[in-house]
Amino acid sequence: MRIQISDDHSLFRDGLRSLLTANGHDVVAEAKNGREAVQLARQHRPEIVLMDLSMPELDGLAATKLITAEMPDVKVIMLTASDDDASLFEAIKSGAQGYLLKNLEAEDLLAMLERAAENEPALTPVLARKLLQEFAKPVDAAQHAPSGEEPDALTAREREVLELMVEGVTSNRRLAKRLALSENTVKFHVRNILDKLHLHNRAEVVAYALRNKIV
Fold first, then answer.
1. What's the chain look like in SS3?
2. CATH class of this structure's domain 141-212
3. Residues 46 and 4: beta-carbon distance below 8 Å
4. How many CA atoms lie within 13 A of 142 on its CB side?
5. pTM of the full predicted structure?
6. Burial profile 70-86: b = 16 or more Cβ within 10 angstroms, e = fewer
7. For every one of its 215 residues, what pLDDT tens digit does the chain have, with 9 covering 90 and above?
8. In the beta sheet, which residues pair with residue 163?
9. Please, are residues 183 and 172 in contact by the beta-carbon 8 Å criterion?
10. Which pLDDT score, from 0 to 100, does residue 152 have?
């Protein structure tokens, strides 16, 4: 897996690089601030960017928004010491594929990277529960669509895919197996759901569906 590390602490980058390379991953770039993180992502197009929350010049949230908007194929995972709920919620809203704490065990981090590669949200059970509880809260009707407009209607098949995603079945392989479809067909339906709901990734889709009670 091609990975970019974005963190302003050189010792942390060194340790993380050693862990990743020892487990067969390719660290293609290292950024020491948010602005550099965006520039290097443009240059190297990594599969995953591990992004610290607090960095100079441009913070992790702002860098994540730029990367996910410009390069939707690049998955950003926040890797931070902050367990603040507001930071978690904002990271997912910014397009992050996951949110992990730096005190995570090495084997758990590696497992989460594999989940992200399968297009599943990279969240520990505790943080996933916090996220679902937050986004399950009702909001005003005017806030339903992220762009301020009503989303396009989902087809019956797209709604079926969405229901499974809310249940926790989020990888293309597992969705295809449950629906007896090809993975390419599942990808097509997921892309349509993202486009119609004006969202960036599957974590946002699940949160949106819960918050707006559309399944």
1. CEEEEECCCHHHHHHHHHHHHHCCCEEEEEECCHHHHHHHHHHHCCCEEEECCCCCCCCHHHHHHHHHHHCCCCEEEEEECCCCHHHHHHHHHCCCCEEEECCCCHHHHHHHHHHHHCCCCEECHHHHHHHHHHHCCCCCHHHCCCCCCCCCCCCHHHHHHHHHHHCCCCCHHHHHHHHCCCHHHHHHHHHHHHHHHCCCCHHHHHHHHHHHCCC
2. mainly alpha
3. yes
4. 0
5. 0.68
6. ebeebbbbbbbebeeee
7. 999 999 999 999 999 999 999 999 999 999 999 999 999 999 999 999 999 999 988 999 999 999 988 888 899 999 999 888 888 888 888 889 899 999 999 999 999 999 888 878 888 878 877 776 666 555 443 344 444 445 568 888 998 998 888 877 878 888 999 999 998 899 899 889 988 888 877 777 887 787 777 76
8. none
9. yes
10. 65
Considering just the CA atoms, what is the radius of gyration of the chain in Å? Answer: 17
Q: Which CATH number fits domain 2-122: 3.30.200.20, 3.40.50.20, 3.40.50.2300, 1.10.150.120?
A: 3.40.50.2300
Q: Please give the Cα distance from 136 to 129 (Å, whole number).
A: 10
Q: Which sequence spans correspond to the domains of the chain?
A: 2-122, 141-212
Which tokens sit at 191? Answer: 């892309």
